[in-house]
Amino acid sequence: MLVKHSVISNIGRLSSLSPSSSVLRRQQFLVRTLCGSRFNPLKLIRAMSSTSEADAESILRTITPSLDPKRHKGQAGKIAVIGGCREYTGAPYFAAISALKIGADLSHVFCTKDAAPVIKSYSPELIVHPVLEESYSISEFSEEDKRKVQDKVIGEVDKWMERFDCLVIGPGLGRDPFLLECVSKIMLLAKKSIVPFVVDGDGLFLVTNSVDLVKSYPLAVLTPNVNEYKRLVQKVLNCEVDEQKAEDQLRSLAKQIGGVTILRKGKSDLISNGETVKSVSIYGSPRRCGGQGDILSGSVAVFLSWAQQLKSGPESPSENPAILGCIAASGLLRKAAALAFAKHKRSTLTSDIIECLGESLEDISPAS
Ligand SMILES: NC(=O)C1=CN([C@@H]2O[C@H](COP(=O)(O)OP(=O)(O)OC[C@H]3O[C@@H](n4cnc5c(N)ncnc54)[C@H](OP(=O)(O)O)[C@@H]3O)[C@@H](O)[C@H]2O)[C@@H](O)CC1
Ligand SMILES: Nc1ncnc2c1ncn2[C@@H]1O[C@H](COP(=O)(O)OP(=O)(O)OP(=O)(O)O)[C@@H](O)[C@H]1O
Ligand SMILES: [Mg+2]
User: Does 10 reside within a domain?
Assistant: First the structure.
């Protein structure tokens, strides 16, 4: 309750600064997420009710916006991925390009200077900011100069923050301590601007070691894989993963982190915000090539933004947009993986699944 008060008073403080329309939209959304809403469209209730298996296709149809010629560039979503370092350039690319392939208008990547030209070379569609620094590039710097570098990094991201509908923090980020310290400050900035964020990959390593970074922020979504989930459970619940009580344990974990939304990836994806638990078990693919989690994190960002837009409109769904975003993303990824596998069998790669995202969404929610 205390936290809700502090978030709401933070909203009040931000309102007095004449915020932009996107910030206002997020404020309305946050208030509704915390306080509930009045309007419940029947179809969404049906899709969410009774059994714990969610009707992902129905949710996808409900939250995917129509292609209205009156809408301008940006209205279908502006996503930013914070990730990409010397070792990993594929992961941030997969997350960012998936967001575009689903239908977002703009996709940014904030990565290290070394990773930027590589990621740019994968695709001219992405807006790539070479702003993050790792320890090795500043090893000779004094403490004061290191602080200046950190301030510069934060400033570069802050310039853009209010424009983003959602961040994806962590794909291919690496675990460099200096870089992770900057990223924790970026999370604080996002919370101040009430921008939702999805935490994945090495972002989860950071959050597991500093749970307060996301605790009680209702716009945080965590997307752990098997290992990442195990580490979170051990740290937060102080016990081991118990498959016999998978749903209860996930609910407890989300509750313990103050009602953040957690998408636990696996044979079935399990989703909870500490209250409800939903599963998505649509048949996907038997291929377990790396990068599928990155598609998922980019997709959650887009669908969460769309569910959030719906939330601030007249047909506001009763369900939390973060939960809807997770269900939609999981369902679409699984459909796309099944389609890609039908075409490519053993040689199915993450890029093949990305190529099937559009066709899979079209099957469920035709563009016209
Ligand atoms: N192309 C790129 O740039 C990509 C970059 N990526 C980026 O890499 C970073 C680290 O992320 P991560 O996922 O590799 O680290 P983590 O979760 O610690 O797994 C490491 C090891 O755990 C094991 N393991 C995995 N699943 C298991 C299971 N079900 N059950 C049991 N064991 C299991 C398995 O170990 P092994 O079998 O080799 O012993 C696996 O190799 C992060 O930034 C991420 O975004 C990726 O997104 C991929 C594409
Ligand atoms: N055993 C499984 N059977 C079927 N689908 C699975 C299985 N494990 C994961 N998936 C699907 O693959 C998606 C990605 O999950 P995965 O566990 O591979 O993430 P990840 O390890 O973070 O991937 P990445 O390699 O991108 O880091 C999940 O959303 C889920 O739908
Ligand atoms: Mg991953």
Answer: no
